[in-house]
Amino acid sequence: MFSTTKARTRLTGVLAGVAVLALAACSSGGGSTDGSSNDAGGDGGGGGDTISVGFSQVGAESGWRAANTKSIQDTLTAENGFDLKFSDAQQKQENQIQAIRSYIAQGVDVIAFSPVVESGWDAVLEEAKQAGIPVILTDRAVDSEDDTLYESFIGSDFVLEGEMAGDWVSENLATEPINVVELQGTTGAAPAIDRKTGFENATADNPNVTIIDSQTGNFTRAEGKTVMEGFLQAHDDIDLVYAHNDDMGLGAIEAIEAAGLVPGEDIKIVTVDAVKDGMQALADGKINFIVECNPLLGPDLADIIKKVVAGEEVEKRIVVKDESFTQEQAIEALPTREY
Ligand code: GYE
User: Fold this and answer.
1) Which domain covers residue 62, as residue numbers?
2) Quick one: where's region Disordered (predicted)?
């Protein structure tokens, strides 16, 4: 939904084109009025400036998620002035809704979450708004039409990521006809929808690219492996796996090797994330190209929370900048890679 922007700013970005949409009316209104009325009754009034934050995480499905959780937990610490209540929704929307309701009941100062899927959030976000608790989205988007239901959304441009993958495939592999199988992320999740769209956009003009099969592997290594086993049974002419994350690509590697084929050679692999295990497989030649998705959202989240609680204006959309890696670039980057 935010993907039409091509703006790419740094994490601390100043100029995201959409950022101007951080309308004074909605963000400072939601932040100051709601935040301070909540503070009066919540723990913000008691222990000085401690900000209580309820964070509902998607789950623990991938290396990316582990790095993202660590970044949030390492940043929203007591030393930094936060009281973090963290819950893992195990990739279930109902668990996230339950967690958000519990944060509302506890009267936290701010709620932050990474929505497992895009749709179905309006009712619970409206409840948070009525309770005067500002909400910040991290990582994944919601498809709510009413953008006063949240203060800000920090995360990557997933359509752009899919386009970067598709452009590389089109330029480097599809100089002759290739059959592609796609391992999609969680059905209904913003990164699954957008990475699919981006890849299709970028390869639409290249008649050499044919997507012969596409199924969800739910962003996990185990499901990526199982789905790839099915693809290998159904098709004997697969040239490329496009996986929406490294973990599913790593699962596909296992399936390809078990079938007696050589990943990266007999069947090429392109993924998204660039977490350590994926980068190692790229350096080893088992994956051919990775588009990065930066999971280190903690510092930006902390910054936005402080501003919202202080009643300052915040950018409605903060676009995280991503890079991409070839094998040579992965070998160079690995020794100093943070995640
Ligand atoms: O790419 C994947 C994780 O939402 C960007 O979720 C995130 C995605 C990430 O499971 O590995």
Assistant:
1) 51-155+295-321
2) 29-52
CA 101 – CA 113 distance, rounded (Å): 12
User: Can you tell me the mean pLDDT for 295-316?
Assistant: 97
| Residues 289/324, Cβ–Cβ less than 8 Å | yes
Same domain, 165 and 270: yes
Report the nearest atom of ligand 1 relative to the CA of 140: 4
* Element (DSSP H or E) covering residue 123: helix 122-130
Atom of ligand 1 nearest to the CA of 59: 10
Identify whether the C-beta of residue 250 lies closer than 8 Å to the C-beta of residue 276: no
What's phi and psi for 53, nearest 5 deg?
A: -125, 125
CA atoms within 13 A on the CB side of 142: 26
4 CA → ligand 1 middle, Å: 20
Q: Is 194 in the pocket of ligand 1 (CB under 6 A)?
A: no
Distance 332 CA to ligand 1 centre (A): 24
> Distance (Å, rounded) from C-alpha 145 to C-alpha 101?
21
CA-nearest residue for atom 8, ligand 1, is 191
Based on the fold, state whether residues 86 and 204 are members of the same structural domain: no
Q: How far apart are CA 70 and CA 76, in angstroms?
A: 10
Q: Is 2 helix (H, G, I), strand (E, B) or coil?
A: coil
18-66 pLDDT per residue, tens:
333 333 333 333 333 333 333 333 444 444 689 999 999 999 999 999 9
Q: Is the pTM of this model over 0.90?
A: no
Residue 246 Cα: closest atom of ligand 1: 11
Domain of 233, CATH number, reads: 3.40.50.2300
